[in-house]
Amino acid sequence: MTARIIDGKAIAQEVRAEWKIRADALKARGITPGLAVIIVGEDPASKVYVANKVKACAELGLHSEHIALPADTSEAALLAKIAELNADPKIHGLLVQLPVPKHIDGDKVLNAISPDKDVDGFHPINVGALATGNMRFAPCTPYGSLVLLQKSGVSIEGKHAVVVGRSNIVGKPMALLLLQHNATVTICTSKTVDLAKYTRDADILVVATGRPKMITGDMIKLGAAVIDVGINRMADGKLCGDVDFESAKEVAGWITPVPGGVGPMTITMLVANTVQSAERSAGI
Ligand SMILES: Nc1nc2c(c(=O)[nH]1)N[C@@H](CN(C=O)c1ccc(C(=O)N[C@@H](CCC(=O)O)C(=O)O)cc1)CN2
């Protein structure tokens, strides 16, 4: 079997077009959805992601503010900036690009963002809402992964979904989203004994471990849908995922490439969450 390649770039364009219609409808009522993105420091990858977020907003005609703060910004100054943007009516979505420098407490920062503007879905109130099935903002990477499955025609209900990785940003919310769509969900970690026993039983396998090519074809069930969330830069400068694409594509039914799979959906779902936040604030 050779897997169908899930084209994240193409699906991201399709989804953006759908959300542009909703953004245009808001603008016709005099409301322009607005996103503020704060970045602290000079991390090169983070700078690219933030620039792409601002670009995506421009593509959909959204208002955006890019706040670049120096690496030595104090925690208090960052919290003051967040408080200012929490109170700004032009801003419907607000995020701080992660990671933040070591001298800043990341949890304090995430807790300071208004849950009503938390388009990353990282605030404990929004995490709790997702866990109790009352989703307000789903974290963008797992939300994008879910939409990739849906748009690719992969059925989720009743299927065994295995998520490898338990981060707050990807693994845990991914498991909750799949559970909400009536999958039977198993969460594995790097400590799982006989990991392949679980991955080989997965109809849907989502991998977010940060370990390059750790899932190989022999660990995958024939015909499974494989979502690779990993982005690892190798010594030769090339990117690869947490799944060994070459061996996996011979066994899987569907697979996301890296780059060009989940990554483009992350920013698309951020824009979607921002438009949805603006709709909510307008009572729609
Ligand atoms: N506040 C947040 N910080 C971070 C998040 C997040 O969702 N919110 N996620 C990641 C970074 N990220 C978005 O912020 C992100 C990562 C990767 C991509 C992407 O499009 N990847 C491309 C490859 C890009 C490359 O060449 O490096 C792909 O996979 O095709 C988009 C967004 C951590 N921080």
Automatic annotation (TrEMBL):
It catalyses: (6R)-5,10-methylene-5,6,7,8-tetrahydrofolate + NADP(+) = (6R)-5,10-methenyltetrahydrofolate + NADPH; (6R)-5,10-methenyltetrahydrofolate + H2O = (6R)-10-formyltetrahydrofolate + H(+). It comes from the Bacteria. Residues 139-281 form the Tetrahydrofolate dehydrogenase/cyclohydrolase NAD(P)-binding domain. The keyword Oxidoreductase applies. NADP(+) binds at residues 165-167, 231. GO terms for biological process: L-histidine biosynthetic process; methionine biosynthetic process; purine nucleotide biosynthetic process; tetrahydrofolate interconversion. Keywords: Amino-acid biosynthesis, Histidine biosynthesis, Hydrolase, Methionine biosynthesis, Multifunctional enzyme, NADP, One-carbon metabolism, Oxidoreductase, Purine biosynthesis. Residues 6-120 form the Tetrahydrofolate dehydrogenase/cyclohydrolase catalytic domain. Signal peptide: none annotated. Its EC number is 1.5.1.5, 3.5.4.9. One of its GO terms (cellular component) is cytosol. InterPro entries: Aminoacid_DH-like_N_sf, NAD(P)-bd_dom_sf, THF_DH/CycHdrlase, THF_DH/CycHdrlase_cat_dom, THF_DH/CycHdrlase_CS, THF_DH/CycHdrlase_NAD-bd_dom. The keyword NADP applies. Coiled coil: none annotated. One of its GO terms (molecular function) is methenyltetrahydrofolate cyclohydrolase activity. CDD domains: NAD_bind_m-THF_DH_Cyclohyd. It holds the Pfam family THF_DHG_CYH. Pathway: One-carbon metabolism; tetrahydrofolate interconversion. Belongs to the tetrahydrofolate dehydrogenase/cyclohydrolase family. Catalyzes the oxidation of 5,10-methylenetetrahydrofolate to 5,10-methenyltetrahydrofolate and then the hydrolysis of 5,10-methenyltetrahydrofolate to 10-formyltetrahydrofolate. Homodimer. This is Bifunctional protein FolD. It comes from Ferriphaselus amnicola.
